[in-house]
Amino acid sequence: MLNFGTSKRKVNMSLPNAFDILKERGFIRQVTDEAAVRALFSAGPGACYIGFDPTADSLHVGSLVPIMALVHVQRAGHRPIAVVGGGTAMIGDPSGRTEMRRMLSAQDLRRNADKLHAQLGRYLDFAGGRAIPVDNADWLLGLNYIDFLRDIGRHFSVNRMLAAEAYRLRMETGLSFLEFNYQVLQAYDFLVLHRKYGCLLQMGGDDQWGNILAGAELIRRVEGADAHAATFPLITTASGQKMGKTAAGAIWLDPNRLPPYEFYQYWINTDDRDVERFLGLYTLLPLEEVRRLGQLQGADLRQAKQALAYETTKLTHGQAEADRARAASQAAFGGGADLSSVPSSQVPRTRLDSGIPAVDLFVEAGLAISKSEARRLIQQGGAYVNGRRIEAVDETVRREHLDGDALMLRAGKKKVHRVVVV
After folding, report:
1. If exposure means fewest CB atoms within 10 Å of the residue's CB, which of 88, 268, 269, 372 is most exposed?
2. What are 224-238's pLDDT values in tens digits?
3. C-alpha distances out from residue 181 to 90, 227, 378, Å
4. Beta strands per DSSP E along 264-370
5. Is the dihedral of CA 401, 406, 410, 414 positive or negative?
């Protein structure tokens, strides 16, 4: 049975089982034993953990599935453990990689770990131990190598490790001995958390299946307990693109890396085919509402996209920023008045006197990554200034194009930028 030692917390038995919630909302890809995991969540307040890689000072949209899984676990009365891998990141996970990861210093990893825990605190309630933030550097960096090999390493089969997909793929390009140790260390994390918090379930991305199973097996061998693994599917968009990746870069959760308005716009621009699935994964809306919104068609589907954008932005940046982003989006695309959150920049009025090439202006505003892309945008009829289409690639933008003291640039139907003339 899962337990927290002296904890007196109770699971709200009127709530659905946490595993059933995750499965119904689309989180579960693989699981060692559905009935056993469901029983763990029914037995009492339980601990489960997910690891996060601190190789950057912010998580991105690709991390939202594991984050939301922990949110659902906590809402069902259990105790999620958010492990930031400051120790394992010094080794580098070879899973899904064709080359060795860039190594960061211990100081950089510690700084990143602190920022990630603060970021995770927007989603999870760490107060009073209701969720647990830990850094595996706390127990990995002080290990005695010989003792660790004798006590832990002896439980691992090299043949079995090399058969794992992550290692097998890397064998083709070169697997370093440093990276070969990663699975052993991650498995040891699971053992440490089991001993300290009674943790019997680790969840993670589907590429972590082999690593998580190694930890469950280590717990069985060392402690004689039945631990379990559950993984999430690799989330791709209907167009086949990896979730959270765009031509402009990652969709960061840190507002200093990506403004809330742009975060909101990322979700507004969701492919129609993905809306219902993403509402289930990335919001806390009841499934009945998710299904209702997912059934909308045509122009009405805009309502579902607005709900998706608003709810995800509220979870990540708070209600005030979500309100501002929604108002700014409606202003930019629907003729409203609140443009304070729309991405903007300034140009001197004197530049307009001689005229600014439209191609240059769209590149400067970040609506095209190069002049050649800006030219293609104009040729395809997708470049607008204050609602007027730019007709020629050699057209210049002048003072007469102003609406008040600003120019609202639009690339296609989705991307806008406001240029304020000073």
Report:
1. 372
2. 999 999 999 999 888
3. 11, 21, 53
4. 344-347, 356-357
5. negative
Please provide the size of the chain in residues.
422
Residue 416 dihedral angles phi and psi, to the nearest 5°: -130, 160
Taking alpha carbons only, the member of 100, 40, 95, 29 closest to residue 73 is 40
Q: Are residues 285 and 354 in the same domain?
A: no
Read off the tokens for 416: 């806008």
pLDDT tens digits along 394-416 = 878 877 776 667 787 878 766 78
Distance CA(177)–CA(153), nearest Å, equals: 14
Helix (H, G, I), strand (E, B) or coil at 230: strand
State the CATH number of the domain containing residue 265. 1.10.240.10
* pTM confidence score: 0.80
Provide the token pair at 419: 């240029």
Angstrom distance (rounded) from CA 43 to CA 36: 10
H helix intervals, 95-164: 106-120, 137-140, 145-151, 158-163
Average pLDDT, the chain: 86
Asked whether residue 306 is assigned to any structural domain, the reply reads: yes
Measured CA distances, 265 to 204, 328, 349, 367, 377 (Å): 27, 10, 29, 14, 20
